[in-house]
Amino acid sequence: ELARQIPCKKVEPCKPEVAQRHSGYQVGGTSPFGVRKAMPVFVEASILELPKICINGGRRGYLVGIAPRVLTELLA
Question: Is it the case that residue 49 has pLDDT exceeding 90?
Answer without folding.
Answer: yes
